[in-house]
Specification:
single chain; TIM Barrel; Rossmann fold; Immunoglobulin-like; six-stranded mixed sheet; 22 helices; 18% strand; globular; disordered N terminus; binds 1-deoxynojirimycin
């Protein structure tokens, strides 16, 4: 007998409660618990350890692989989940091995890094976050889930909810940027998008909040590096997006590679059990990052892999990704009494519970539908959405003398730069099963937008990342012949993402030289910047007439960029992260502390640099539109509130330009005096408002004492009476402001 569900059916029927093959709207939690227990009772220790083991397939490897014979492991019941395998036929074959060829027939879970789309690729997560549009971001995750599940997957290693304040760190591209509040909103949108309303819906997949915790605080912006932050910073800055993911119902968590204050996350019981489970009530399972149990040996936290495994499972890690530590040593650790059977059973229960919730016990092939694979991938609707998502992620950073939007009837254009006719880079890093050859280049997008009479002169100018200067003269010649130059420069896709940190953040290679030469022609230059992070480009920003931060826009890149360049879409995105002037300013983010000697240009002994201003090149929340918005009449419903009141903050926003457009109205607060110091500004709300030319709307925000709470001197999460300032504006620097008192 290889069919576990028959065994379960028997157990359940004799207990006289729920049938195993319950209706597709799923079992109650109590029924799932009974079914989990009934499976657990049948399992040997080896089979239990198998459920806690996750191996990569040979399809797509995202780290150093360790096992070649994983198919044998599946058949032996030594694997509970597989990642990096997709495609209905392949998944069905692996699932068949688990279901048909193992003693108990427990189905596998199939996971993959579906980060910003599966086949249809959306902008990198940082770019999506620049839209500040949670409904759009949620829908992007929804579509990613539809496509991924159509190819056999039901688990994504996303969202990455790490706050990142150091653009040297390549993984800044994978998250929502520097801000806690925006990070929380994006975490919720993505979790809900991936998971939908029910996990056993074959078009939803279980999400994974990663990398828990504080991975983004790596010293010197170097990947995998040490983190040493205060408990307060951990709780106020790095944990809230994880907590928001838990509250949104996220099903799994991934531990991070880093240590915090000497304790690697993968062995950190305080993080994994005390905070995650006891404080936050997380019910799902925890997986490690790729071999991060093994790495606790190199960290100097465990003397060998066996001990590392003991530390991990006793801390609260349920599943071992690719490390084969549980696989190799857990049995021995149990025999030696280093790990209790109850701990293992609890971890197995969590994994089995998820398999029930995903509907895999009822139908192990629920996600193996050939028709869906043919019909639901890269559909017209998905591509249209990708175009819209991409144009909503493009931030207009400069538009001198309103050079943009360009006329589609323009007589001639020079399109210059190593990324102008490049396809490969457009889908960015972590682009899952995305096929870059299907991406629309910027040049193609421009051709598609302008009149057939427009003369387009293309020149590569230089390569992305080498020192070849020989094509620059061709670019200069072409620039001279054109009315306007569109310069497309930036990073290669591999320069951000995992293990892709940079110590210099200027344009790579000789691109700055190309930009200088083209700008020196005197022709107006419009720069389209593609990158996985903020770049330090003060010189370019000063000399170019217009500047668009387009991140890596995904499959529909070219059309989206062209929509913005030629006014089909009026840009509305806002920076989710600060653009520094120089690497030396890093970390630089808007909600810093004031210091005891705030910057005073006339006083040497204040907090500043000798060689660069304190302020950034472009601040958090910044982004222009082809129209202009005027803020007025900021009103607070009261001058004083108490802890149970709601403060209504109203502001009028008027479209004072000639295009209709969308503005993201941002609300910040400052707590002037606290038992511990507070940041100079904290984002507490935002609202997107669409206005026709001349139209004015009033936007209302609500603030309660809970929005003003923080970890006080005793580490109690509370608000403190005193004076506050509310700021409302279109970015973190330009705001109207008013004070109020919390009594
Ligand atoms: C390592 C990365 O840190 C993590 O984000 C990813 O999900 C896993 N590899 C699996 O590919």
């Amino acid at each position: 007998m290889r069919k576990l569900y028959i065994a379960i059916l028997f157990l359940v029927v004799i207990s006289g409660t729920f049938g195993c093959k319950g209706p597709k709207n799923g079992d109650t939690d109590a029924a799932i618990e009974r079914r989990v227990d009934s499976v657990l009772k049948l399992m040997t220790l080896e089979e239990k350890i198998g459920q806690l083991t996750l191996f990569t397939s040979d399809y797509d490897v995202t780290g150093p692989t360790m096992r070649e014979n994983y198919k044998e492991d599946i058949k032996a019941g030594k694997v509970g989940a597989i990642f990096n395998a997709y495609g209905v036929d392949y998944v069905r074959e692996l699932q068949r091995m688990a279901v048909e060829e193992t003693r108990l027939g427990i189905p596998l879970i199939f996971g993959y890094d579906v980060i910003h789309g599966h086949r249809t690729i959306f902008p990198i997560s940082l770019g999506e976050s620049a839209s500040w549009d949670t409904a759009m971001v949620r829908k992007a995750a929804r579509i990613a889930a539809i496509e991924a599940t159509a190819e056999g997957l039901q688990w994504t290693f996303a969202p990455m909810v790490d706050i990142a304040r150091d653009p040297r760190w390549g993984r800044i591209s994978e998250g929502a940027g520097e801000d806690v509040f925006l990070g929380q909103c994006m975490a919720v949108a993505r979790v809900k998008g991936f998971q939908g309303n029910r996990l056993d819906d074959p078009r939803t997949m279980v999400a994974c909040a990663k990398h828990y915790a504080a991975y983004g605080a790596a010293q010197a912006g170097r990947d995998y590096h040490t983190v040493d932050i205060s408990e307060r910073t951990l709780r106020e800055v790095y944990l809230p997006p994880f907590k928001a993911a838990v509250d949104a119902g996220v099903g799994t968590f991934m531990t991070s590679f880093n240590e915090i204050a000497g304790v690697p996350s993968t062995g950190n019981r305080y993080l994994l059990t005390d905070i995650l489970r006891k404080e936050w009530g997380f019910q799902g399972f925890v997986v490690t990052d790729y071999t991060s149990i093994n790495e606790m040996v190199a960290h100097g936290f465990a003397k060998d892999e066996k001990e590392a495994g003991e530390l991990a499972i006793n801390a609260g890690v349920d599943m071992d990704m690719q490390g084969a530590v549980y696989y190799n040593y857990l049995k021995k650790s149990i025999e030696e009494g280093k790990v209790s059977m109850a701990t293992v059973d609890e971890a197995v229960r969590r994994v089995l519970r998820m398999k029930f919730k995903l509907g895999l016990f009822d139908n192990p092939y629920l996600y193996c539908n050939k028709q869906r694979e043919q019909n639901e991938i890269m559909t017209t609707e998905h591509l249209a959405f990708a175009r819209d998502m991409a144009r909503k992620s493009i931030v207009l950073l400069k538009n001198e003398a309103q050079i943009l939007p360009l006329s589609k009837e323009i007589k001639s254009l020079a399109v210059i730069g190593p990324l102008a006719d490049n396809r490969r880079e457009l889908i960015g890093s972590w682009s899952a099963a995305g096929d870059w050859s299907k991406a629309v280049t910027i040049l193609e997008g421009i051709y598609g937008a302008v009149s057939p009479a427009t003369k387009i002169l293309y020149a590569r100018g230089c390569n992305i990342n080498d020192d070849t200067v020989s094509f620059i003269s061709d670019a200069v010649n072409k620039a001279r012949q054109a009315e306007v130059v569109i310069l497309v420069v930036g990073e290669a896709h591999w320069m951000s993402g995992e293990a892709a940190c940079r110590s210099e953040l200027g344009l790579p290679g000789v691109q700055q030289q190309l930009a200088d030469a083209v700008i020196a022609t005197g022709k107006p230059v419009v720069t389209v910047l593609l990158s996985g992070r903020p770049l330090t480009i003060p010189q370019l920003a000063q000399k170019t007439r217009a500047l668009l931060a387009a991140w890596f826009p995904g499959t529909m890149a070219g059309h989206a960029v062209a929509d913005v360049l030629f006014g089909e879409y009026n840009p509305s995105a806002k920076l989710p992260v600060t653009f520094p002037r120089s690497v030396g300013q890093i970390p630089i983010y808007y909600n810093m502390k004031n210091t005891g000697r705030p910057m005073d240009p006339n006083n040497k002994y204040t907090s500043k640099y000798l060689d660069v201003p304190n302020d950034p090149l472009f601040p958090f929340g910044y982004g222009l539109s082809y129209t202009t918005f005027e803020y007025s009449d900021l009103q607070l419903s009261a001058e004083k509130i108490n802890a149970s009141d709601t403060l209504y903050v109203k502001v009028k926003v008027k479209n004072t330009g000639k295009y209709s457009g969308e503005e993201t109205v941002q609300l910040y607060v400052r707590d002037l005096v606290g038992s511990v110091t507070r940041p100079v500004k904290e984002l507490k709300g935002f609202y997107k408002v669409f206005l026709q030319p001349g139209e004015e709307k009033q936007v209302t925000f609500k603030l309660t004492a809970n929005d003003l709470a923080f970890y006080d001197i005793h580490m109690k999460f509370t608000s403190e009476p005193g004076d506050f300032i509310v700021f409302v504006g279109g970015d973190s620097q330009h705001c109207l402001q008013k004070g109020f008192v919390l009594e």
